[in-house]
Amino acid sequence: PQTVDRDEQGRLTVGGLDVVSLAREFGTAAYVIDEADFRARARAFRDEFGAPFAELGGVDVFYAGKAFLCTEVARWVADEGLSLDVCSGGELAVAQRAGFPAERIGLHGNNKSTAEIRQALSYGVGRIVVDSFDEIDRIVGVAAELGVRAPVMVRVTVGVEAHTHEFIATAHEDQKFGFSLAGGQAAEAVARIVAQPDHLELLGLHSHIGSQIFDTSGFEVSARRLIGLHAEVARVHGIHLPELDLGGGYGIAYTSEHTPLEPGQLGEQMADLVQRELKAVGDGSPDTPTPRISIEPGRAIVGPSTFTLYEVGTVKDVDLGGGAKRTYVSVDGGMSDNIRTALYDADYSCTLASRRSDAKPRLARVVGKHCESGDIVVMDEYLPDDIAPGDLVAVPGTGAYCRSMASQYNHTPRPPVVAVRDGRARVLVRRETVDDLLALDQG
Ligand code: LLP
């Protein structure tokens, strides 16, 4: 986070508070989110990313709530003027509880239930991103029942191989999301939707190519193909769809090996390519309205705003043979609060947070407390040689897809989310208790 610092005793501080006091008050493991940092990143997308689109019909930034969502964060998103992408009835319920403006909500999902569609249309969400022919029928049914016209977008599989982990790439042909462009289903979906003008209002086209992406060439191909379809829709149906959504996926730096794309720079690149592609197909000329662009960053807004604070429980040297050894530092959490290392081979770093140490560095593997050897938090990290039980370590960049993907594996209560700002801390999501877990168990 931007407000992270060290005090005279070498303790990590965030938002003016030191981590030793935070650990005393809220316990460990804990996710610590820097509110100012979150808000600044949200604003950067709105303003810096948005600026180059000003002459292009404008941009809407949808914060992807799947990265992390709770009521207060939904309020921050609303406050900063962003829209919100939700992908389940549960995420929508959080948005509703926060009083998030309905017209600024988009609903995603490849298998939305009738109940979820009803919840969304009753609340009056601004868009449903349609993902299958079955869903088109389902939305028509609910819209008819409620007597509303459902605003929809078509999720297009643009056929891009995004350069990221295969589990989080979403626009190549052989995966579950969207309507294939090459296979003609996207055009067919458009046709079926425009054939239902009483129940459906087609707003535009959507594409999301994947997550943790650094190379903008994938976005470029995706935008080109989406705009190609946009032009085809104009030709075939005589409608200039008012919106194009280019999805999220902007990568962040988990370690010093990554250089994240800055919102301003990204915005310029994206605006250039959108303008170029619109021109190439004769769209966006004075007699055709320019579509409004939307994007859906999740990780790039919330990821860097948060670190996880753990307490070291054990330090163990393991003999690897041939004189080699590895130091295992166990902390009071692990794959239940951050599954990303085990699931995606994700890289993290960590730092001794509770004191200064001048001891020489030693290579360590930071592991959790769960009953499997793949329970690794940080694969390789230099920590001071005198690291010991009771020390606190902080793992930065855990704002996205950590609490939101947390589990209660081994009946481990999930950690709290604590927000800091201007020297004050407050709990946004409280720590789970064993009683919470037992409450589900019918005995
Ligand atoms: N829009 C759509 C339609 C998405 O499916 C996603 C992410 C996003 C936006 C936001 O992507 P972001 O800007 O956060 O990269 N659990 C994985 C990431 C899965 C992403 C799922 N969809 C991880 O921990 O890396």
Short summary:
This protein is an alpha/beta fold and 443 residues long.
Descriptive overview:
The structure is a single chain. It is built from 12 helices and 21 strands. The protein has 443 residues and is α/β, with parallel strands linked by helices. The chain has 2 domains: 166 residues, Lyase, Ornithine Decarboxylase, Chain A, domain 1 (Beta Barrel); 190 residues, Alanine racemase (TIM Barrel), CATH 3.20.20. Strands 4, 14, 15, 16, 17, 18, 19, 20 and 21 form a 9-stranded mixed beta sheet that branches. α2 runs parallel beside α9, α5 crosses α6 and α7 crosses α8. The two termini are 43 Å apart. 49% of the residues are buried. The mean pLDDT is 95. It is an enzyme of class 4 (lyase). Pathway: Amino-acid biosynthesis; L-lysine biosynthesis via DAP pathway; L-lysine from DL-2,6-diaminopimelate: step 1/1. One of its GO terms (biological process) is lysine biosynthetic process via diaminopimelate. One of its GO terms (molecular function) is pyridoxal phosphate binding. This is Diaminopimelate decarboxylase.
Descriptive labels:
TIM Barrel, single chain, 8-stranded parallel β-barrel, alpha/beta, EC 4.1.1.20, Lyase, Ornithine Decarboxylase, Chain A, domain 1, 12 helices, Diaminopimelate decarboxylase, 2 domains, 443 residues, 29% helix, binds ligand LLP
The CATH class of the largest domain is Alpha Beta
- What are the bound molecules? ligand LLP
Helix residue percentage? 25-40%
**What is the approximate shape?**
elongated
Q: If you compute it from the alpha carbons, what radius of gyration comes out, rounded to the nearest whole angstrom?
A: 23 Å
Examine the secondary-structure arrangement and name the CATH architecture of the largest domain. Answer: Alpha-Beta Barrel
Strand content: 25-35%
- Distance from N terminus to C terminus (CA atoms, Å) equals 43 Å
Number of DSSP E strands:
21
Average pLDDT score: 95
Please indicate the count of domains.
2
Relevant CATH superfamily of the largest domain = Alanine racemase
Counted by DSSP, the helix tally is 12
Structural class: alpha/beta
* Poorly predicted segments: none
Write down the CATH topology of the largest domain. Answer: TIM Barrel
The main β sheet shows up as:
9 strands, mixed
Enzyme class: lyase
Subunit structure: Homodimer.
Protein name: Diaminopimelate decarboxylase
Cofactor: pyridoxal 5'-phosphate
